[in-house]
């Protein structure tokens, strides 16, 4: 039996998803994509999962789409019509965008094409000092994938995104950090420990429902036309949480000078208006 293209490890409420095709620098295959989509669906419904870490096995994070199929790799001749075709990478990033759990990308090596665009909906991106990245679409004669033309300018600004996308060049982790594509650079052996440390900050002493609401609001408001949309949804979220057990526990634990014991759960208590 062939080895799974995705390794799942749940430890202390942190789910680590490791892309597992190290001989191909974890190049994305349809099997890997399907495994990721299924794992994220399961994580979203599992209250034991409080945070997700994405990383790669071996020396690569993800070297883009697997090109072993040759020149016809991106051909749509055998697919649906132009109006019905949907980019597979977009399915993944929209799944990440809609996830109710914090996601940290631990970019441990080369990350190009879908390998970097899949990290854009993550809440935190960390990189190893050995990582290299590239939005290489123009050099492959294709268009951007994974909703990256929406995400990238919001993260690094339109001018930086345009320069990287239109040149298609590969750049190092230091340049990525200067442009705020990644927040921290770490020695390879410190990358996953730091990712877990940040994950614990999202988990310890927080209401999982509050964290899920915050994540959904921050991302959704990127496309809002007016702050009144935030005013409307935040007001509803405050009303929803204000009558719940977690807000009472949050206040009581503060007054009692003790750690909180939140009982609300994402699977059952997340509001239906977000």
Rg for CA atoms: 20 Å
CATH superfamily of the largest domain: 2-enoyl-CoA Hydratase, Chain A, domain 1
| Overall tally of domains | 2
Separation, N- and C-terminal Cα atoms: 42 Å
N-to-C order of helices and strands: EEHEHEEHEEHHEHEHHHHH
Mean pLDDT: 94
Anisotropy-based shape: globular
CATH class of the largest domain: Alpha Beta
Number of strands: 9
Residues in β-strands, percent: 5-15%
Q: Give start-end ranges of low-pLDDT stretches.
A: none
Q: Helical percent range?
A: 40-55%
Reported CATH architecture of the largest domain: Alpha-Beta Complex
CATH topology of the largest domain: 2-enoyl-CoA Hydratase, Chain A, domain 1
SS element count, helices: 11
Largest β sheet strand count, sense and barrel closure? 6 strands, mixed
Biggest sheet strand line-up:
1-2-3-4-6-9
What would you call the structural class?
alpha/beta
Written description of the protein model:
With 274 residues, this protein is α/β, with parallel strands linked by helices. It contains eleven helices and nine strands. It has two domains: 6-203, 2-enoyl-CoA Hydratase, Chain A, domain 1 (Alpha-Beta Complex); 208-269, Orthogonal Bundle (Lyase 2-enoyl-coa Hydratase, Chain  A, domain 2). The chain has a six-stranded mixed sheet with strand order 1-2-3-4-6-9, sandwiched between helices. The chain is globular, with a radius of gyration of 20 Å. It starts with 5 loop residues before the first strand and ends in a 5-residue tail after the last helix.
């Amino acid at each position: 039996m062939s080895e799974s293209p995705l390794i799942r490890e749940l430890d202390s409420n942190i789910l680590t998803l490791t892309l597992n095709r190290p001989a191909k620098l974890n190049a994305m295959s349809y099997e890997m994509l399907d495994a990721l989509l299924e794992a994220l669906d399961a994580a979203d419904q599992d209250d034991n999962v409080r945070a997700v870490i994405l990383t790669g096995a071996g020396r690569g994070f993800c070297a883009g789409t697997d090109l072993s199929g040759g020149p016809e790799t991106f051909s749509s001749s055998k697919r649906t019509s132009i109006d019905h075709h949907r980019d597979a990478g977009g399915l993944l990033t929209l799944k990440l965008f809609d996830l109710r759990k914090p996601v940290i990308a631990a970019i441990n090596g080369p990350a190009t094409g879908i390998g970097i665009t899949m990290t854009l909906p993550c809440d935190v991106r960390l990189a190893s000092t050995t990582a290299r990245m590239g939005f290489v679409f123009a050099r492959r004669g294709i268009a951007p994938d994974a909703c990256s033309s929406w995400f990238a300018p919001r993260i690094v600004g339109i001018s930086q995104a345009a320069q990287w996308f239109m040149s298609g060049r590969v750049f190092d982790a230091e340049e990525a950090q200067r442009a705020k594509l990644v927040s921290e650079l770490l020695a390879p052996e410190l990358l996953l420990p730091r990712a877990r440390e940040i994950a614990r900050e999202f988990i310890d002493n927080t209401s999982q429902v509050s964290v899920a609401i915050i994540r959904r609001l921050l991302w959704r408001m990127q496309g809002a036309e007016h702050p009144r949309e935030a005013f409307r949804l935040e007001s509803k979220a405050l009303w929803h949480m204000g009558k719940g057990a977690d807000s009472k526990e949050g206040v009581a634990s503060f007054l009692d000078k003790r750690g909180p014991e939140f009982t609300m759960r994402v699977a059952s208590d997340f509001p239906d208006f977000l």
